[in-house]
């Protein structure tokens, strides 16, 4: 065979590999409103930047006639490319080949790209569209999953790991995305569950649809498994590009700083009036966030889950910052099991990747009740406390209004190594609210007062006394627990100046194998 013939054969094989499972299956994928594995990569990465590995790999299975069914690439496309000029590693599962099912060689391809991402210290992006383990390969398929899981675990906290679920992801396949930092799902076509509707029906008798069991909307709002819910795949791929603008390449680097033309001393008089006179009246904390961050741009995470706390990324003078904020507009901003877990994991992610944390506090306490206690609110609340106390990145806390009881401690207080703790003049820092405090402090006296009018006056007078003492930030400031009481409209400037002063912060936790966070 001449050199020209060899080159021609190479070109033909490359073309064959790029067709995946063939034109008919590609068309079937398109009819479902889904892109192919390679189309997804092309949309995600900078144009012309993708370099593919292992295009000619095929499976080695000889069971059930599989030796007669071989496709180049074996159901997953792997390689590296760039996003905004930054190197990333990617694998994209190809549903047109054996339904994207995982074989031994399929797993080896993913493991190789994961190993290369770790060596290079670059983010790893996995696009999932798979029917699960390839049944014809039995235990070797299961072993392949375990090899991937182990790499997910070792890469955790070292390189950012992002999972996009753009099709089925069931059985053992769900655990690789679950071990990554961020998961996104589409409103249609994507679902995740450990056992499908048929098994659920057989075992429990419950009759449930694929969507209601593990669809994107369910995991974005009820389980919290999915951090982002997007309308379609294109939106999801663009969102991954956006997310990476806030993240460093790895845990040894700092996030990328971008040019900023939004004045750092910009003031917004609206903030001086946003806190209602009635302390029980809600407001939207995202309005505060939009007002103080660069260009009012905030990338919210877990938008539809545990809405009583808000988390996400923004920039201050071009520097990425993670934001955690109580949301008075939902359940009064109270901390419960879901909110504690949501915020704790986000704080730990930011700390892993050198992203400073801003905490905006307006919390009336932990949600009371048997459901919360039986569900382990003690342990889950401790997770958030642990995360803040363990974090060594720069931390700034601004108390906007209420900061009551144990929830005050949990929300990055000074004693949990908060670097700068500011308060608005509307802040109330106390063990509990005025009405509850009067009941506790004057319970005996109240029991003796039979006249309703006298009782009401007694309560009102003592509530006013309590408010005068605690419904302000000055006692905490007098003790040094609050570093300064700031004018709300000047919040952006004070935060930026604060993070500038903390840019060279050095803090190291005691040497240990690893911590034992209360799980």
Annotation, overall tally of beta strands: 17
Strand content range: 15-25%
Task: Please state the overall shape, judged from the principal axes of the Cα atoms.
Answer: elongated
> Mean pLDDT across all residues, rounded?
93
Largest sheet, strands/sense/barrel: 8 strands, mixed
Gyration radius (Cα, Å) is: 27 Å
In percent, how helical is the residue content? 25-40%
- Structural class, judged by helices and strands? alpha/beta
Question: What can you see in these coordinates?
Answer:
By secondary structure, the protein is an alpha/beta fold. The protein has 20 helices and 17 strands. The chain has helices spanning 3-18, 23-31, 37-44, 104-120, 139-155, 175-178, 197-204, 210-214, 216-223, 233-244, 285-292, 337-352, 370-374, 377-390, 405-410, 434-441, 443-448, 452-470, 474-478, 491-501; strands spanning 51-53, 76-83, 86-93, 124-128, 161-165, 168-170, 182-186, 191-193, 228-230, 298-301, 309-316, 319-326, 357-363, 395-404, 420-423, 428-430, 484-485. The strands form three sheets. Strands 10, 11, 12, 13, 14, 15, 16 and 17 form an eight-stranded mixed beta sheet that branches. Strands 1-2-3-4-5-7-9 form a seven-stranded mixed beta sheet, with helices on both faces. It has a two-stranded parallel sheet with strand order 6-8. A hairpin with a 2-residue loop joins strand 11 and strand 12 (319-326). The longest helix has 19 residues, at 452-470. The model has no long low-confidence stretch (mean pLDDT 93).
